[in-house]
Amino acid sequence: xxxLVLGGTAFVGRAIVDAMLTSGLSPTLFNRGTSALFPExxxxxxxxxxxxxxxxxxxxxxxxxxxxxxxPRHVGQAMAALDGRVGRYLFISSHVVYASCGPGADEDTPRxxxxxxxxxxxNETYGPCKVACEDDVxxxxxxxxxxxxxxxxxxxxxxxxxxxxWLRLAAAGGRVEVPGDPAQPVQLIDSxxxxxxxxxxxxxxxxxxxxAVGPITTLADLIRTCASVAGTSVEIARVPPAPAPLIRADWxxxxxxxxxxxxxxxx
Length: 267
Fold this sequence. Notes:
By secondary structure, the chain is an alpha/beta fold. It has 2 domains: 2-153 and 190-213 and 256-263, 3-Layer(aba) Sandwich (Rossmann fold); 154-186 and 216-238, no CATH class. Helix content is 30%, strand content 22%.
């Protein structure tokens, strides 16, 4: 199976390409060509920030995986450049597209209103821009569109290290200060599990939207689990609010249903 990957060398994209190679798929990378990763994989050089898609003027693929589409211009230009020479379009979106949720909320939960008049990504615009991207992919590809909405992603080469911050503290043992509510919900997915889901969706040619989310837990239980695996004991202490990884008082989104993704093969 020939798959064009838009991106493919940073964190989530890297995990997806690794999974493709392990699973026998044949990826081609489209990116700025600044990384030496995957020298054995064909690479097309372009730049989504400037709209340089000239390298996509020829060639065809069974599917495209869009890891680096953040605003509608990105997906619109990519789809125009490919001009019907790709089968399925799998778009990596985000859990923050949803307007609201409660425990167990699924893929049919109402989304936020799309935003198309800015490319400045903030906590307020990131989700709505992803909604606009989803809408455009669905409008053009219909039942050949697949939307994957990950929760917070953790795993090797995570540049944000949101999970590993707490893992290191738990592994050290002793007092772990949490600047917020230790009972706040947290829902992580390992980048490798996300990558395997993407491969499975491609191989099975599955349309639709999928919440790529892990088990629902709390920050306190996550820290305790890390300590248990590390063979340490911890005392979790709530301290006054301050910026820290995974601390989000409004993170009600971290309680979503993974039933559809698990039925499709997500671990």
